[in-house]
Amino acid sequence: MSESLPSTWPGALSSWRAYAHLYLPFLTSFLCIAFAPPNTSLLPVAASAIPTYLLGSLIYGTNPAPPPAERVRFTRQRFSYRVLVLFTYGRLLGTPLNLLYFAFDLFANYMLVPLLIREDVPRRSDLLVCVLWTTASGVLLMLVGHGGLLGLVVGSVDRTLWRATYLALVDGMISTLGRPDTVSSRGKITVVGVQVLLITLFTAWTRFRMTYSREELQSEPE
């Protein structure tokens, strides 16, 4: 179920350098949250990806991305990684954890997803494949409805595919920002674009959760 980490890539770097473009956006987000007023526009937050990239380039340098065959997607490196990422699904919006459903999600992810998505194919990301499958299952679910045995089966498959898409999204972002291609112009633009998305979404989500929690505390009777 887990794959061993590659060690033959000629451009191998120490982890703190290889993943500089991945962890620096989170540091930038924390700085934006800590020092910028909550109602600040997200435009300067998004623009902070540029100095983040420049700082990351000083640490990471200019290196080519390893070939697809040398890449191991994050959630397939260890079982604990997949558990951790699946755990965050739903928790991001404050949905309470249901251990029974969570156990089903883990089981279905290991049993069903490999039947639909060839995990042995050395792609950089499974996101597009997962999106196509999730779209198809959503259309089928609308046609058959949620009732009856067929609706239960299709609904379970749709639930599993949504979570597989989330895993693929996380894998794709880690794959793009971890040991990225910073030699070609396309690679540099891709890294900056993903960092813009990551910084903006993480900052906006954190602001939302902080505002929501504050409103909940204020609405509680004394």
Automatic annotation (TrEMBL):
Residues spanning the membrane: 20-36, 43-61, 129-154, 189-208
UniProt KW keywords: Membrane, Transmembrane, Transmembrane helix
This protein's name: Uncharacterized protein
Lineage, top ranks: Eukaryota, Fungi, Dikarya, Ascomycota, Pezizomycotina
